[in-house]
Every structure is written in C-alpha cells, then in structure tokens.
Amino acid sequence: MAETHTEGAAAPVDILVVGGGANGCAIARDAAGRGLSVTLCESGDLAGATSSNSSKLIHGGLRYLEHYAFRLVRESLAEREVLLATAPHIIYPLRFVLPHHKGLRPAWFLRLGLFLYDHIGGRRTLPATRGVDLRQGPRGAPLKSTFVKGFEYSDAWTDDARMVVLAAMDAAERGARILTRTRLISARREGGLWRAVLRTREGAEEVVFARALVNAAGPWVGVVARLLGVNTQGSVKLVKGSHIVLPKLYDGDHAYTLQGADGRVIFAIPYEGKFTLVGTTDVPLEGDPGPVRASPEEIAYLCAALGDYFDRRVTPDQVVWTYAGVRPLYDDGKANASAVTRDYVLDLETPAEAAPLLTIYGGKITTFRELGERALDLLKGPLGIAKDAWTRTAPLPGGDLTDGFEAFRQAMAARRPWLSEPTLTRLCRAYGSRLDVVLGDAQSWAELGRDYGAGLTRREIDYLKRYEWARSADDVLWRRTKLGLHMTPTERAAVATAFSAEETTDA
User: Fold this and answer.
1) In sequence order, what are the beta bridge partners of 4?
2) Number of independent structural domains in the chain
3) What is d(CA 106, CA 426) in angstroms, rounded to the nearest whole number?
4) pLDDT (tens digit per residue) in 264-321
5) Which of these, 201, 207, 200, 203, lies nearest to 186 by C-alpha position?
6) pTM of the full structure
7) 244 and 150 in one domain?
8) Of 272, 343, 331, 184, whose CA–CA distance to 486 is shortest?
9) Contacting residues for 385 by C-beta, under 8 A, at least 6 apart
C-alpha cells in the first residue's frame, strides 16, 4: 500500500517550484541563497527534457540580430561572461568559423553583424572576430573549394545537463529540498497559501503548503497551469529541435556556423573527443510535448545541410546518436518557428490576500541564472524578501578554480598520476574542485571499484547517486556524463543492471 503523508505540523515553505529544468533549478538556487525555504518537485530527472537536449552553447545568438532582438543578444552576451567566470570547469570558450556563402547573406552583412556581436555585450575575455582565408590553413580544409572567405568569432560551450544539476546541488546545499521523480498532482489556494499534493513514482503522496508557487514546467507549463485552475496571461509555442551526432567530421577544436538556404543556422561542434554534434532543427509541435525523437526527415535535413559545406559526404546511416528536445517559446504571434522569440517572459499573478503564482515562459540556457535572479526580484515584494541578488559572482559547485581550469587540471594530474589523461580531463571538467569528493582517498584506479567501461567506475556512480540525484543508467550515461556514446551495448547494460540491483558502496 502506498504511503500517504498528510498535513502535519510542518511549516509552509516560502516557495514551491514545479519543474527541475534550467529555469526551475536557477530559481530554487537563487531563492535558497536569499534565505527562503524552497521545495522543488520534478516529475522525472533533473534536466531530463529540454534542458539536456540543447545545442549546449552559451551564446548571444548571432542570428537573433536579424530579428532586431538587440536587448536579448546584449543580455545573453553579458551572461556569457558571467557564466565563464563562475563555472570554468563546465563552460569554456569555443571559436566558430562562419563560411561566407555567396548565394546567401552578403559578406558586408555578416561583418556588420559580427562587429555588433563583438561590442554590444561587454566582451572582456574572449578573442575578437577575424577574417579567415578558407583556401589556406585548417579552418577551410574540410570545406568545399567554393568557400574561399569566412569569419571566425567567439562563443562558449557548456555541458547543459550538468549545469542544471550543479544549480540544484547549490540550492540543496543552501537548504532547498529537491524532489525528483515527484509529480505535482493538484494545487489550490487555501487560506493565503498554496496547498499542493505531490506524488512519487512509487505512489507515496505528500501535501506541501507554500507561500508562493512557481510554474517552471517548461513545455508542460500549460499543463500545470490547467492543473492549478488558473488563467495565465501568456501562451507557449512548442518547437522541436533535433540534433545528430556523427563520427568526427574534421580535425581541430573549432566549430562551424553554417547558413542554411531556408534561413536557419546549423552548428557543427566538436563533441566528446571523437564526435561532431550537429543541430538544430525548428519544427512546430502540436499536442503532447514529449518524449520526442529526431525524425528521419530532420536527420536527412541536417545531413543535407552539412553536404552543402563539407567535402565529405554525410548520410543518415553514419549517425551514431540523436536527441531531440522541445523548446517552450513564448508565443509572440510569429508563424515562422525560427523567428519566434527566444526571450523569456515572467508572469506574476498576485491576487489580493491570496498566494502569488509566478509562471515562466520561454528562455534559453544562456540566461538561466539571470532568469532566476529576476524571478526572485519579482517575488521580493509579495514575499517580503530582504536579501538582494547574489548569484552573479557566486561559482557553481566545483567552479571555484582560483587559477583557472588548466592550472587545476595540472595540479590534479600531479596528485593523481594513476589517472589516464582522457579520464583525468573528463573528471576535471565534470566535477571541478569537487573531484576530491568523487575520488575520495583512492590511491589507485583499482580502488575506485568496478570499471564499467569508458572510465566510469563504481565510485563515480555512487557519487552521482548520493550527491546528484542519479536514479537510473540514463541519468548517468546520457545526462550527468555522456559516456553512453563511448560504451558498447554490453557495457551500458551492465550499468543498467547496477541500478536495478541497487548496488551500493561508500563513495
């Protein structure tokens, strides 16, 4: 029989956040850091949907300039600087090569856009744009000979799922309660509070009272709004974006920005050492927002886009992995999915003598921290919050690398010489200064326990279960790490068995 928790003497929390994606975790983190009591519920895994299925870029959005979204680009570029400084282990600079396609945007137009991109966001640490002769050097080597001129500019890359999990970790360490695999069943206003019923996958129910409720359910924001029985001011346009992963298409640690004949922009990005990540599509979606998959048409579209630029022929049968996510964009009335705003909208409802409701529409991972800050600033009045914003200079867990990432990696190599170079770099990137917690007092590789393949050990799995809410093989292999790409089916099955058997050892 399922356990049922009814109302007891527990005091109401200040904020109940519904949704454990980038926006929800950023809000929970900011709120906990301002001294508020917070409960966050997520029906699946943290970053289990949209927030782990992005292009994994921290960027201003160069193409948004065409839609005159200057404020969004400026704020996103400013956030790029903030995130590079506060999470240098999982966010790092990436150079992009933009070949000039004579049949599309003129060269002067690209140059003007890149000039604005360099200057409107307060770029401080990244190299500036420069012209590139694609007939010489490695940048043009993999491209067709018809591309002779291009530009090289800066942006940044992140591990999107890890960024979300780290925000949740910071929230939890500051007192927030993070409940994964826990669904909101019902909620209503009662006596100046929200009375919410939560249910775990095992069927246990709990009643939570909250002074405010935040609907950060992403693609399911409308579903949650209907569950709450409220009429929100905005609406969501669901757009599916799909990505493909191919064996490495070219040498080098740079990415490519490819202009499509349909006006879209496709990125080709170095991925996991041995692969190239390509995306994304923009396909309007009706009905249930998930789970979704890359369609054969989308895969063919991305391969064809690569074929317009690269000498090497790319076909769908070469694809080793795909993923797709649903972007919950704020519906601004534009019919073209690529033109719909990527900005976010915060809708605060504060009825007289009733608990406030904050609904989050849209957003992008680049601005997730800023969104959390603005959400708490909105709730300052209704909740009587005294503490000001704080996250702009606060490192995400593991990001307090005083001398930078490379110095940290070298120090760890000296302390742990028994780690292979690829595994050392991966662990330093994933965990930063928390790596000592992962490895504990181990003095050799054998002391980390069973090696499941690709450098994933029993010790690391135990850490992810204990500190990062990992509850399944997918949580580990495809979100908190991407080691599923490097493993055989037999190795992946062994990890799944480890979870189903509930193996536990001390981390």
Assistant:
1) 205
2) 3
3) 40
4) 899 999 999 999 999 999 999 888 887 899 999 999 999 999 999 999 999 999 999 9
5) 207
6) 0.93
7) yes
8) 272
9) 34, 36, 376, 379
